[in-house]
Amino acid sequence: MNSAFFSDLLTSISDRGRTLLGLPAPSLDPQKRAAGLADLCDRLLSGRGEASGTALAREVLDRYATLDEDARTTFFSALAERFGPDASAMTLAVDSWAHEPTDDNAARLHYASEPRRQEIFRRLNRAPGGTAALVGMREDLLKQLRANPGLKVVDRDFVHLLNSWFNRGFLVLRRIDWSSPAVVLEKIIRYEAVHQIRGWDDLRGRIDPVDRRCYAFFHPALVDEPLIFVEIALTADMPGAVQPLLAPGRQPTPPEKARTAVFYSISNCQQGLAGVSFGNFLIKQVVEELRRELPQLDTFVTLSPVPGFMGWLRAQAKSMTSEPDKQTVESLDDSEWPQDEEFAPRARALLEPLAAQYFLEARTAGNRPVDPVARFHLGNGARLERINWLGDTSEKGLAESAGVMVNYLYDLDQIEENHEAFANQGEVVASPAVRRLLKSGSRVRLAPAVSAKA
Predict the structure, then answer these.
(1) How far is the C-alpha of 231 from the C-alpha of 8, rounded, in Å?
(2) Which of 195, 219, 267, 377 is the catalytic position?
(3) 72 and 144 in contact (C-beta within 8 Å)?
(4) 304 is catalytic
(5) Could you report how far apart the first and last alpha carbons of the chain are, in Å?
(6) Which of 31, 327, 353, 374 has the smallest count of CB within 10 Å of its CB?
(7) What is the sign, positive or negative, of the torsion defined by CA atoms of 68, 73, 75, 76?
(8) H and E: helices and strands count for the chain
């Protein structure tokens, strides 16, 4: 109710302010419209009135929404080139600091060095719906970074502000169940990124049974828009495969008999918030919620995909000296191979030790594990507990990881120690069983480290 009242108030201020703007109609030419939009940003920075500023911010966002991709590139380029730090103010601040390095002069230097883009984004955020529009704008920007590396300065400013606006103190944890609003349930179906939800019946099977839970983080400025959500199965033991967890008609585990909470799917919902990390907070808070509800739970694990394994395996196969091993890797392209009673055991003998090597030894150029899911959970303090052969036999699972899945164990007494070992030494904390796999079979001479986002 408070969020709705505040939104209505902003809209009222914006509507009144529009009568004060006297803006010319936007050009029909997309490139000229993008240039005119940059001029409006200049005007937004120079204005002081609350009503006119809110209305102008809304006008900027409305006009941005009409731009095509090329015009958006032009607009982002203008943000990069025209709205950096004020050079004259920064020169004065640098001279003052060099002459007299006081706290006051340090503060002046700090504020003078801030790009003007950041104040543009702050003012745009005051418009009705501004936060959602800026998240969408950043999603557009991310699509252009590879082709336009000069726009990275704009992205850095976005990330700086979004980390503040979406810090943990603003996030609200909500349980998602069958009584949640339909608009939220529809978004859970749409945003599920790990194991596709095939309609309403499938969704109900994920969130309605007594041994299932789903939690999501929300932000007050994005009403009914989940930021990230986690799906959980309550089980007696640690599972090694996902298909039994998702099987229609399966027999639910009575909650009082459950000893294990399995985080089997974690999905980020807003592409524009990539790089703004709150997944670690989600897991830790959900663990606390589950412990309060079901104090008998003593094991908290994931059943996680290994999205980069097949790509890594194919790259390493080029340097394999054994022709049979190369042929085995090539044969994994046939999705029917798990049913081959002769081939499947041979594939297992080769792939399980290589999977252990993938997690324990393969590194990016920054000396971090190549697998993105591993970086996330290990960075949160989890332990690589078990490698599961044919844990996901879906078409996607076979294509991405040859069916391999892993369990990461969140041992509440060891989380901080594991996190420190990973953050400071890059150590992959793994169980003895995983380390034994590394010694049990073939290994490959690793190709040079590849770059990857942290």
Answers:
(1) 34
(2) 377
(3) yes
(4) yes
(5) 38
(6) 327
(7) positive
(8) 20, 7
Sole residue written with tokens 């590396």: 149
Query: b/e for 108-144, b at 16 or more Cβ within 10 A?
Result: bbeebebbbbbbbbebbbbbbbbbbbbbbbbebbbeb
Predicted local confidence at residue 454, as pLDDT: 35
Residue 59, in any domain of the structure = yes
Condensed to tens digits (0 to 9), the pLDDT of residues 268-303 reads: 999 999 988 887 889 999 999 999 999 999 999 999
Last residue of a domain, one of 111, 145, 165: 165
Residue 453, domain member (yes or no): no
CA dihedral (250, 254, 259, 260) in degrees, to 10, reads 40
Q: What percent of the chain has pLDDT over 90?
A: 81
DSSP one-letter string for 145-193:
TTT-GGGHHHHHHHHHHHHHHT-GGG-EEEE--TTS-HHHHHHHHHH--
pLDDT at 24: 67
**Residue 2 predicted with pLDDT over 90:** no
CA dist., res. 406 & res. 302, Å (int): 8
Q: How many domains does the chain have?
A: 3
Q: What mean pLDDT is reported for the chain?
A: 91
Q: How far apart are CA 120 and CA 107, in angstroms?
A: 21
DSSP label of 271: G
In whole angstroms, give the CA distance from residue 101 to residue 402.
59
- Asked whether the beta carbons of 56 and 21 are under 8 A apart, the reply is yes
Q: Is the pLDDT of residue 25 over 80?
A: no
CATH number at residue 57: 1.20.140.90
Enclosing domain of residue 315? 309-438
Name the nearest CA neighbour of 354 among 381, 375, 326, 392.
326
If asked whether residues 43 and 119 sit together in one domain, one would say yes
Average pLDDT estimate for 23-29: 70
CA–CA separation, 254 and 245 (whole Å): 14
Maximum pairwise Cα distance, the chain = 79
**Domain check: are 405 and 296 in the same one?**
no
pLDDT of amino acid 280: 81
Percent of the chain with pLDDT over 70: 92
377 catalytic per annotation: yes
pLDDT of residue 452 exceeding 60, the answer is no
AA letter at 415: I
Q: What's the confidence (pLDDT) of residue 321?
A: 86
Of 14, 304, 419, 451, which is the active-site residue?
304
Residue 12 has pLDDT above 80, yes or no: no
